[in-house]
């Protein structure tokens, strides 16, 4: 066998491409936060959960403060020089992504210093981040934390979420940060000074320091308030609020304009200049962007989105903000996002917005940053879009991945790949030539998100726009690729477990199908079989199939068909079937490309090959020792068969948990006569053509054949590497070590011969998807030695509030991979031994009496003295004979030592509960073997010992045994109450239980476990307080449920809670829900007033009913009018008549409905007659044509006609019913007789014409007799 290097040379003589490093697809950005992205001219960054992603794009120009643009040759000017080498000289527009900073808590916000690289206050460190644990950290471009503080955590005496941070442009030495409790911390880096200012519980959402004036900051809140404050970072003055302005919705962005010359096109602001603050909100109403001056003057309002379509469901729009610079003119303009992913801009020259782009389709945009000429945007859709502001064209569209579980290649469109993973959506990515380095301007087609991660994918073999998928909760479905459509069809029935594989194939059936039923349905089944391809799935240890065109059908168990067709007695040929244990747990499936063979892998390492339609077993393979992970047919063989019938090779690959991949060549085994003979015995295969074994013995998860070279196959495994093998020699030729986590999927690049795509289902400090050139990765047994970067220990900035206990939050960690787990558990180094014990499964029951446990087995007293004490109740004096005793008052004898007075000795504490011992020569450790009093004394010693070590729960358990309420009350007073303590208190009296419940509820409130806290308050008898807690935290449904269960009807707290609930629902635009709540308390009038704001036909119909209940006749007639007009314009006259006949006060509308219905049907009838060329009389033709022209269906639906009718009826409302009917009927008839000849003609002639038309139409005749009664008579 030749060396791996030689294999590479023999395979291709083309030299490896220099400078092409692997391309990594980044993880997705954080949602619903504008301060989760930040930028400077040479780089930008965003937050992705527990990691930070630094992005270094191609630079075109520099705008950073304090730099020499024309001659920046100083040391450290460009951060790119300090980063790992990438494709700097390539013509690719794909930026470099650096993922770093992995930690246990999530990051919340970040910001960049805008100064030039040589002017940074911390050398080489331009980035600051904040997290949900209260830490603020500064990072350098080598992705190391260089300094940090935890003032927010110390000031609040708990872990607190730092929701916004900003690095001041005006004074680069100052960093401002603000937490959810309203504490604003100003950090002067050069002076090492930290200053805290508290503004109370204001729920801040955004923060930005003014770039034009010192010490001025602005921050927005969830309540819609915007505060402009003066914060002296270096001085002694406290912060003070200068001004307060307000939005009606939650503020999501506050941003100062970088220039003071912005003109907001208002008549009162033409001559004004100064700092301008822009603010944006998220709202179900049409949101706006407001402009304010530093003195809180209103400087302009910009509308963000267009009017919502009539009757559509409210959509919460998130309006992100960015002050950008035009690369061509250098002027500033304001960018924001619209409701469907459009980006629009506002300039100081025009009030009207300008459209920028809509590459983000159907997706809210959360992050907007400008880096050089490129505008970068992140959204709910998993893509990052780069837009060139100089050329106004797409620079690149970058898909993002948060763990990938499956990759599938399209059989009909060679460049398409389907990718699914942890973010529960399916992506169709077009890997055209040299993608992603080039041609990366096309966005992927992304499905709507589902509820669980995508585990398996398969393209339809004939329809290139249909993808089958399976999820980890057993859901099967299909995703159809359509423009502007993201909907997926999920089947009604689920698989009983994780879906490991899906594939498309012809339907199968059982041989035992009833012959009569088979003969009656044979033709139908044959037609269906020829015209459809079924979706197969492997999950829950079974194989199923379903017709995708009938998603409501039950799943068909293919495993049962296999068992029926192949009984165990005749299943295996050439072996003793009694010695074979058949494990029916299927683990993977794969149809051959020509649908002639169906392969199934099992958990015991078997692979069985079946032929359709009855699933007759032909070949079974037993070469693996553990579960099959993946099966794959070589497509090249089936393509060659179509081109050359003489081609007989059929290569097949299988991977397993036994760390091997087996290759089989079925040449000669697939004899046509053998495959077609259902009576032929199955063949056993116990050897493979080649065995691919990875060096370190980790399981091989997947494999893929090269579409460019039939001799190459790729394997990926849990050892974090992908290996390319040459099957001709069975040797590895390339190995990629670039991943930091296990691999689960991999394919060859569909259009680039030498590129490979590998994917991981985890995200630590690594991209989930890598694209690499295997020519640059020659095979090695171990990863290449890399120069370890010098670890920088971050400098901790003392707060001065209290001694810093935790000075190093970035502890060294130990990774422990749990079995059957998809993520790593990270523990601190001091718990390493404990973790190992848990991993080995070693556990031991612990005693509640540790203080005396050791003394009982290893006492310092002699064995004789302990026996004498137990038998005679005496303890010998120290240094005397055994007869010296002391008599106890109750008749027992006790020792004469100091402990004889009844006091107990001190306990010696130990780290191990089981090894704790008590010093001294007392015998109280034998109290458990004595009488009741002695046992109680021993247990009290144990309780005190537990309390001294902080194990209050165990002490309370012992106190419960003794009935000692005093110890439990002491535990509550010390603030050590837990759920166990409350349960113990329940047995010790009502008052003790109430006190414990109240204390535990207060503790739960601090932990924000609201429902549980309310439950304990309810248990303590404080029902009103429990309800109030739920209502204050907006859990109104829970509060109302508790009220119903515990309060009398009409209680004041019930009314107050419902009012708060209604206020929130109305503010959120949930008018239907508010109406339901109003009706539940009998306020029908208020419900009517609420739904009146929503102008939809469904609301009009409901409004009629509520108005009738309230006795409001006028509103009922108005709602009835709207509903009837809408129904008739749609041709639904039946619904309109039902509404009119239901309510007595709407009877006056009946002539109007009947007239409209008659004209509607008549116009249809005449149009049909005219279209068919029927001859009509000359006397009637003019009237008929006028009727067709003026009153056909389209005209009836015209809004102008509807408006005319409405205005007429509104006039009629002031009349009585008779007058209203006359006005309505006359108006409608005049609309029909709009022709001058008939308007002045004899009404009798008109009646005769109608009679001729309706001789054969009694329905129309009766309608007109009723409708035209007033006019004709």
Automatic annotation (TrEMBL):
Domain Gem-associated protein 5 second beta-propeller residue range list: 416-760
Top-rank lineage group of the source organism: Eukaryota
InterPro entries, A to Z: Beta-prop_GEMI5_2nd, Gemin-5, TPR_GEMI5, WD40/YVTN_repeat-like_dom_sf, WD40_repeat_dom_sf, WD40_rpt
Protein name: Gem-associated protein 5
SUPFAM superfamilies the record matches: WD40 repeat-like (SSF50978)
Region: Disordered, residue numbers: 1-20, 819-853, 880-916
Positions with biased composition (Basic residues): 834-843
PANTHER family tied to this protein: GEM-ASSOCIATED PROTEIN 5
Biased composition regions of type Polar residues, renumbered to the chain: 881-890
Species name: Orchesella dallaii
Cross-referenced Pfam families: Beta-prop_RIG_2nd (PF23775), TPR_GEMI5 (PF23774)
Domain Gem-associated protein 5 TPR: 926-1132
